[in-house]
Amino acid sequence: TRGFKELDGGGNTGFERSEGLIKAHINTDPNQRVFQKLELKGVFSHEDSRETYLGLTDEDFAENPYRRYRASALDEMKLWRVGLSLTHMLEIGEDLDVRTVAYRHDMSRSWKKFNSFADGTNASGVLTNPTGRNAIYYNVLTGEEDSSANNVSLNIGTNARTFFSQGVQSTVRHRHEANTWSNKVEAGVRVHQDQIRRDHSEELYDMQAGELQRVSGVETTYPTRNTEQSTAFALWALDQVSFWRLTMTPGVRYEYIINTSEDRNDPTAETIQGTQDVIVPGLGTYLEVVDNLGVLAGIHRGFSPVTPGQSGEVRPETSINYEGGVRYDDLASKHFEVVGFFNDYKNMVGQCTFAAGCAEQDLDDQFNAGRAWIYGAEVLASQSFALGSPTRLLKLDLSYTFTQTEALTNFNSENPQLAEVEPGDELPYVPRHQGAISAGYEDERVAANLALAYVSSMRETASQGDEGPRTDSYVTLDALVRYRLLSMFSVYTRGNNLLNAQPIASRRPYGARPISPRYVELGIELDWGKEGTNP
What we know:
This protein is mainly beta. The chain has helices at 58-63, 123-128, 134-142, 147-150, and strands at 6-7, 15-27, 34-49, 67-68, 76-92, 96-117, 154-177, 181-208, 211-214, 221-243, 246-263, 272-290, 293-304, 317-329, 334-351, 366-389, 392-407, 411-412, 420-421, 433-442, 446-455, 474-484, 489-496, 519-526.
């Protein structure tokens, strides 16, 4: 695609993406009591995206939300990924099965983009208030003034990163059914290893006659070059016990993690090593009060480990998560549930990222953000109607989520979204209201769906009351129609954001940025599945 944004002076703002998938398997006779299957899966993908983090001033956004300044002309991300997995499945009768998978994934990503002004001027501040002294920097971003006239150069950086993840996991499941009770047990073990190698570079550019020109005589710098690795060993078990009208699902997970971090920019620096271990229990219950109607409740411990290379002062994130509600499900045409949730973060952890607007020297640093509450409620409802025939159906779906956040402790960080937090502040980029409603029709040849979604405004920094900037609330309308011409051949059309909503979705790391505009797709589909069914 050529993209939907418009680069000042012209240029491609789209992407090329390709992916290949191959699967092969061999299995024994499925009619025998002991069944085995061996499956090999390989995937390759490549992407070249001319995307940017550089946004617009609010005034420019109001005039054209899809505009891009000339300072983003060189922004481009290149990515490739290769994955391979081998899965063995063993089924003994109807009650016992064992699934074991070995996997390896490799990925490389290089993103060249506008990073900052060379003299340290805050780009987000320039786009928030492009007047006074900031007007000079704004004019360089847009290409209206040359760097040489004002000594305003730009850092263009390439965040080059390579990743791999590999491991082996095995899961055993056993089921037992009796007249008055049933029991389903699952236990597993996993050994996992992943690594990231960062090679971040920066080059100095000037804006000259509306074009970015590399400054001669200035060498490339490498602000970040490190290698970080984690090895994790995990054991878990859960048991779903059902008797009378009650189902209880207790579970527990143990994890032991070894982290290492090597700073390749400093040959004298020692490799940082650390270990963590945790036991994470949980319990879920469901009581069917009358046929198809019941109440549910659950309590689970949350845990997020410290990433490699952090200081000894950073502690893992822990939380206690509660939920409770009512559910109705007749397993045929009606489903309704209301669930309330309360997440009590004992020690919330934040992390500096480029997307959040953090400086290069702070990227990937974690920090402890203290206690916080995240609570709210979810409503889900669906209803299916047969229109004169079991194969002619109308389905209505409704969902709504209310979420409230509250910080309970003071803290300061280098992350602009969580710079100075006080008790009572709400957390950024968490919409208070989200909802969707959809209507779908399906028969032997036609399938159609219309969906309306709403997302409320979000805070862009931790704040309370009327303080701080916010994103825009917005409504999107999506539609899909598919018509089956032959048993294996269909044509379809899909439309996203048909109302062409143009909200400010974010101002991070600098400048206002939009969502995707109206998009319509026409296509054909071949399905070699079950012949004679609706694809």
